[in-house]
Amino acid sequence: MRFASSFPVLVCKALFVAYIAVTANVIDRQIPEQAAFDTKEHILTAELGQFIEDLLRTWNSPGGIALAVVQKDQVGEWNVETKGYGVARSDGSKVTPGTLFAIGSNTKLFDVLAAGLLIHNSSIIPPLTWETKMASILPTFELMDPISSEHTTITDIISHRTGLPRHDLMYSFSDDIPSLLPRLQYLRPSAEFRETSQYNSIMYMVLSYLPTAILPTKIPFTRYVTEHILNPLGMRATTFSYTQANASQELAEGFGRPGVNSWLNPFSVGKYKTFPFWSQNGGDDGNVISGAGGMITNVEDLATWLQFLLLKGRHPSHGVSVVPESVIRKASTGLAVAADDMGFPEFSTTLYGGGQIKTSYKGHEMIGHGGAAPGFRSQIFRFPLDNFGLAILSNDDVHGNELIEIIKLRIVEDVFGLSFTDWNTRYRRMMLTIATRAAATTTSPVNITRPSIQLDRLPGKYSNPSYGSLELCPVSCPHAAQTAVCKDVILDAPKMLSGAIDPTKLTFVAKWDKVWSTHLVFTHFNMNVFNVTVLMSIPTNDPEEPFWVTGDQFQRGVTMEFAEHHNTGKVGFGLMGNFWGAGPGVHGPQGETLCHRSEVLFEQL
Ligand SMILES: *[C@@H]1O[C@H](CO)[C@@H](O)[C@H](O)[C@H]1NC(C)=O
Ligand SMILES: *[C@@H]1O[C@H](CO)[C@@H](O)[C@H](O)[C@H]1NC(C)=O
Ligand SMILES: *[C@@H]1O[C@H](CO)[C@@H](O)[C@H](O)[C@H]1NC(C)=O
Ligand SMILES: *[C@@H]1O[C@H](CO)[C@@H](O)[C@H](O)[C@H]1NC(C)=O
């Protein structure tokens, strides 16, 4: 999970947007006399509905799907269809076109367009450009790599080229952008500046600070977007405020399936549980994640959004420009290669622009993004040369990505009259292959050797200047001296981490309060190495089962290693195995010492 554009990423075709603009203008000038589409459902047909209901059933989805499709015909007439399928909430209510979902990283495009509006704001002195350096706008902007610190521009941020990996576990809902900024300099980069594109939400959070940092009113990002993008487009249901979404009584609940490990056992039914909405603080002013992934919306508003994007920034009914065309083009044109191999011959190389990837499917150029929040998945894509766009939202935390991808490609094949590819069977096979591989690689050494450091020196408080501090609590050493914090953590572990701790192994637990995690569990593997699981313990309102646990499906292969500092004798531990979330093909750090090998290093206080 984690804000991902997590489905296989996507990509590009070297087609110049300027060329598209020319052809589109010719088309737009013709005034339609008659509707080219009658009022019947053309795309979201009963047959497609049956296909979607069957998918929800065969993938054991407790949730539903919301869909918007928009298509402009040759005389400029729009066909807009929206529909809901399946279940929105645990009370059994159905998904409708008005049902609100969290769209996660599909918010990033709003962040980029907000920056674009500031860049085109002639009353801002000195003027901003896409190449303005962040350090010149935010004096406290500092990264570990001095070159990156000095030279990172708005373009580098939107195309993920600072050299930083995700580091998504460093921030909490109690953070704000000013509290993040001074901690960025301690995050270890995984690549050189501009070497490669590695997805990074933290930089989008930093970008969302622009309206506050630059405008005399110090307006928060969320209010800036509402005032300059959502209101002009009439996207009235769209909000960053949980309070407002909840009050509308239209907010979907995200469903998880405790006990279903989507990697090891992808098709077990499990029993569902709901997530309390993830991002509840901040109201209309938003919070730390607003710019990277905080938007809540429905497919009715997203239909307008898709039309606006296909019209390169213009309002779909009166044609007034809301965002300059050059800004839409900047976001939609590839700035970096996101993936040079999609693993499927139907897709071309994927480029990343700004909050948008660009690829093609069976020769049809597509531009858009995926999004994830706990319990929610989304995709919003448009096919500019085909004047077609679609938005698909899911509230299934386990298989939302697969369901959305299968539905999207099926619709695209129908609409464009393409040959049929059985993505459902492909994805089911893929899940099973991953499960078989995962089972085969989960090994335990035959003869386990204890850590070289005395066990009673390992528990205690550790700290990292970016991630903050945490306390390792020895759940499996009842004789160890316990602090007050650890007494609570250990006492709560059976109910908060039910089923997540192997009682036969030496185990430490740390409780922290991050956006994507409440606990880390360290299970002894061999010598000084522990396996790490990054978990989120989620409260229910059920006294019988007060919590459920999720998170085992990601961060596989993360390990932790202890060492003693050779001079000071102090104990520290390093996290490795892609704990930091580096991009594809980017290797972890190497080296003789723990310090060199660690993606994130914690030192005992
Ligand atoms: C442009 O900047 C002025 C102040 O410098 C501000 O009042 C206005 O809201 C800004 N407009 C946009 C679209 O950023
Ligand atoms: C959400 O709305 C419901 C009523 O629609 C209300 O009972 C509940 O208290 C609200 N929750 C929060 C956290 O505001
Ligand atoms: C624990 O880590 C070791 C060393 O990296 C690895 O070989 C093993 O498969 C991991 N075990 C689990 C259960 O993930
Ligand atoms: C495990 O330890 C036993 C006893 O020391 C030894 O006989 C055996 O060869 C060891 N096995 C491995 C795989 O190292």
From TrEMBL:
Superkingdom of this protein's organism: Eukaryota
Stretch forming the signal peptide? 1-24
Sorted alphabetically, which InterPro entries does this protein's record hold? AmpC-like, Beta-lactam-related, Beta-lactam/transpept-like
SUPFAM superfamilies recorded:
beta-lactamase/transpeptidase-like
Question: Beta-lactamase-related domain location, by residue?
Answer: 64-398
Tell me if Kinase is a UniProt keyword of this record: no
Q: Which UniProt keywords apply?
A: Signal
User: What is stated as this protein's family in its record?
Assistant: Belongs to the peptidase S12 family.
Q: What is this protein called?
A: Beta-lactamase/transpeptidase-like protein
Q: What species was this sequence derived from?
A: Mycena maculata
